[in-house]
Amino acid sequence: MTEISGGPFVIATILKVLVFFTLLILSIALGTYVERRLAAFIQDRSGPNRVGPIGLLQVAADGLKNLLKEETWPSAAYKGFFLLAPAMALIPGTILFAVIPFASPAPTRWGYVDMIVADVPIGVLYILAIASLGVYGVVMAGWSSGSKYAFLGGLRGSAQMVSYEVGLSLSLVPVLMLAGDVRAPEIVTLQQHYPGDATTLGVWLVAPLLVGTFLFYLTGLAETNRLPFDLPEAEAELVGGYHTEYSSMKFAAFMMGEYGHLITTAMLVTVFFFGGWDIPFWSGDNIRVTADGSLIGEAAWWKTLLTLTAFTVKAGLVFATFIWVRWTLPRFRYDQLMDLGWKFIIEFVTIYIVVIAVAIYVLDRTGLEFGPAYAAALLGVNVILAVLVFFLFDRGRLIRGAGREAEREARRRLLDSRRQVRQQALTRALAEGAALAATADDSSEGGE
């Protein structure tokens, strides 16, 4: 079966854009509901349960509320940029989905339809380029509002997103070294098992790149400005951060952009490290498109739906962990946030790239076949590196910086208090000695 072409290709592409964009918008709405329910579960409360069955229509009620709320225009705002900023925050998170493969190819009478909106040859580079545009919405909102709180939030957001964007990009280098390609479908194919094919690993990359998965997850979470990395919106310090002066649908656009970015990040984690739409322990979904456009494997509509369900479940679980982290961990201090980005992540991911490159070179030189055994060897390297860094070398200086700093401060105060007690005791003893000496002198003079 060959790929669909001509007029049917144009129609199929338009349908994919409409369907996937609609599903993404619905996912953003559903994501707000899921976060409220999970937060309620974590905090032992009910959550939304009044509007509609089990509170499902609460999202519609919130949307209607934002539509009907009064628009505010700060007198000191630069109105053109003030209006453009919410769009700049919303667009990057909603167009990244174009290069994400959602399911296995679907067969039609005109040929197969690839379940990706645009299979561009620069897939990963497109992702990194579009993701970097999100900082413009934050900076523009903070600057154009004419408010010091919003301006400080914009400065924080730009510094944070630029800092962690470097680590995010570098954490994908080991993935590209194993895949040998920047296209997302090829990265999914790498993680599938094709007997006799020496170009596929047959193992999800979360195993051979365990540390890389952690780094990408961490930097991706920081890029979304979510707890514990939500310093640009810190309500205890900046009222609301860069969107302090926004209301109504302009404020909703920032929230939609945040959830869109969060969902897209969960999809990227799924594609790069959890096999994409691959269903574990089943070879029936091993369908791939070759360089000449031909199809390997037996495509079927039911397989497309099944793999789409698998992809949705995986991305949903990653999204749930983002929510779990938000409602579990406290916010970093800003100096800790920047120290983690510049003094730990960038250095660590650079060392990690070198270690993985050396490991791949050694494994290739030893003639180990590219497959599960190869992945197991890389997993061992990752485990050793993780133990060395997190339990031996760091010793709580960066990763547990707040606790270690508080511990050092408490020890310093204890030593200072002990020193003061000793000095007071010495002073008291000297005073008592002087008093005794003076009493003895008075007694001797009286006796004479």
User: How many individual domains?
Assistant: 2
**Strand residue content:** under 5%
End-to-end CA span: 127 Å
- The gyration radius over C-alpha positions equals 29 Å
Give me the strand/helix succession. HHHEEHHHHHHHHEEHHHH
Total E-strand runs = 4
Q: How helical, in percent, are the residues?
A: 55-70%
The chain-level mean pLDDT equals: 86
Oligomer: single chain
**Major beta sheet, strand line-up:** 1-2
Any idea what the shape is? globular
Task: Please identify the structural class as seen in this structure.
Answer: mainly alpha
Main beta sheet:
2 strands, antiparallel
Low-confidence stretches: none
Protein architecture, described:
This protein has 448 residues and is mainly α. It has 2 domains: 7-11 and 74-394, no CATH class; 400-438. The chain has 15 helices and 4 strands. The strands form 2 sheets. It has a two-stranded antiparallel sheet with strand order 1-2. A two-stranded antiparallel sheet has the order 3-4. Helix 3 runs parallel beside helix 11 (248-273).
